[in-house]
């Protein structure tokens, strides 16, 4: 380990170790306090079906902080690579602001590093907080809100047919094709599909097209804004037919429609409405390199890099002792940004062989974990 790659020091009174089922009740207590959702059975199912590993910080034998890992397959350029999703990060309120989450997350990342996992992602509760741990925003998405009555009616809404929630498997080939068109998109397994469609705070409906699908949430119509949970379109026909379908939502007493997409150019190319669509660009997930060599292998690069990791997990690659000062130095989150095209212009310090090497498609992570 190079001098600047300092591993975190664990205070003597704390121990970081895997959370086992015999500590599940305490883990659920912490999650309930942190997320405001108190349902022991649902948390238990989440622990058993969604989390592949969980690490906790213990104080005198008592679990006080924890973070989980969900193993995914992620599209990075044209390759599916392992990704460690960090989830369920929580702390007992009386132990916050002591750096204990940092210890639990570092243990998660070290476990992923030991398995040569190239990349990790998470949905942050605070972007600056995770930025201090080497994560950086790796995708941006567009939130679109439209008045239903002015949505262009240029397609045929009848090409979308209502589908039972139990027939979700019909969506899978379309979804797989859709996410392959996006960088940093995550493959969805059966558990994740069921979790998406049976969310307790939604009334979900599916409309399927030959080249797309729409999942909408019809709950809370009194707010008169329809939430599109997920909209995948593979071509212009599926987009136009979908817009025609959404226009008809005013017949169901919805005045507005909201949806998220990775690129608004196909929508803007249709024309300007009156009133125009409200479009906001928002940050999405944060990502960072975990195993430097595995990441470079995944993107097809072989460039000496000094990864300056604040958690001491990611290591330099291809750098001999004494060469650190002359090498390309970068933090693990910024490296993901350079490779996937977050920046349009190459900073002078970034090697040409790395910059934008996987930028052929937009970065967009639809999966919530």
Keywords, separated by commas or semicolons:
369 residues; alpha+beta; Aminopeptidase; 2 domains; 7-stranded mixed β-sheet; 25% helix; globular
Structural class: alpha+beta
In DSSP terms (H or I, runs of 4 or more residues), the helix count works out at 10
Ranges where pLDDT stays below 50 over 5 or more residues in a row are none
**CATH topology-level name of the largest domain:** Aminopeptidase
Number of domains: 2
User: Based on CA inertia axes, which overall geometry fits?
Assistant: globular
Q: Please state the CA-atom Rg, rounded to the nearest Å.
A: 22 Å
Q: Quickly name the level 1 CATH class of the largest domain.
A: Alpha Beta
Strand count, sense and barrel status of the largest sheet are:
7 strands, mixed
Output the strand order for the largest sheet.
Answer: 1-2-3-4-5-14-6
The CATH homology group name of the largest domain: Gcn5-related N-acetyltransferase (GNAT)
Mean model confidence by pLDDT: 92
Write the layout of secondary structure elements.
Layout: E1 14-18, H1 24-35, H2 40-49, E2 53-59, E3 62-76, E4 79-91, H3 100-114, E5 119-122, H4 127-131, E6 136-137, E7 140-147, E8 161-163, H5 172-180, H6 190-197, E9 204-209, E10 212-217, E11 225-233, H7 236-247, E12 256-261, H8 265-268, E13 278-283, E14 286-289, H9 292-299, E15 305-307, E16 328-330, H10 332-340
Helix pairs in contact: 1-2
């Amino acid at each position: 380990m190079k001098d600047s790659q300092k591993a975190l020091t664990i205070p003597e009174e704390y121990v970081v170790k895997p959370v086992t089922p015999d500590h599940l009740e305490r883990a659920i207590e912490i999650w309930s306090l942190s997320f405001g959702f108190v349902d022991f059975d649902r948390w238990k199912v989440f622990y058993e079906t969604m989390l592949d590993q969980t690490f906790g910080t213990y104080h005198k034998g008592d679990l006080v902080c924890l973070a989980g890992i969900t193993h995914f397959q992620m599209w990075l350029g044209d390759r599916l690579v392992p990704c460690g999703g960090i989830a369920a990060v929580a702390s007992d309120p009386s132990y916050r602001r002591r750096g204990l989450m940092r210890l639990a997350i570092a243990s998660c990342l070290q476990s992923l590093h030991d398995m040569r996992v190239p990349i990790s992602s998470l949905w942050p509760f605070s972007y600056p907080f995770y930025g201090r741990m080497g994560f950086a925003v790796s995708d941006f998405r567009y939130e679109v809100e439209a008045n239903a009555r002015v949505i262009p009616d240029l397609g045929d809404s009848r090409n979308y047919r209502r589908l039972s929630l139990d027939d979700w498997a019909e969506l899978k080939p379309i979804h797989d094709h859709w996410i392959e068109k996006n960088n940093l998109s995550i493959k969805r397994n059966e558990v994740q599909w069921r979790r998406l469609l049976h969310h307790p705070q939604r009334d979900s409906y599916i409309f399927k097209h030959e080249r797309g699908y729409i999942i909408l949430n019809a709950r809370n119509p009194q707010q008169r804004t329809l939430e599109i949970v997920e909209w995948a379109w593979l071509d212009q026909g599926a987009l136009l037919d979908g817009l025609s379908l959404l226009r008809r939502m005013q017949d169901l007493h919805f005045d507005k429609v909201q949806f998220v997409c990775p690129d608004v150019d196909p929508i803007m190319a249709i024309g300007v409405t009156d009133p125009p669509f409200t479009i906001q660009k928002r940050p999405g997930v944060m990502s960072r390199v975990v195993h430097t060599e595995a990441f470079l292998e995944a993107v097809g690069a072989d460039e000496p890099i000094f990864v300056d990791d604040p958690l001491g997990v990611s290591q330099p690659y291809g750098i001999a002792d004494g060469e650190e000062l002359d090498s390309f130095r970068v933090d693990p989150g910024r490296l993901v940004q350079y490779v996937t095209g977050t920046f349009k212009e190459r900073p002078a310090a970034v090697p040409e062989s790395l910059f934008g090497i996987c930028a052929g498609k937009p970065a967009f992570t639809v999966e919530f974990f």
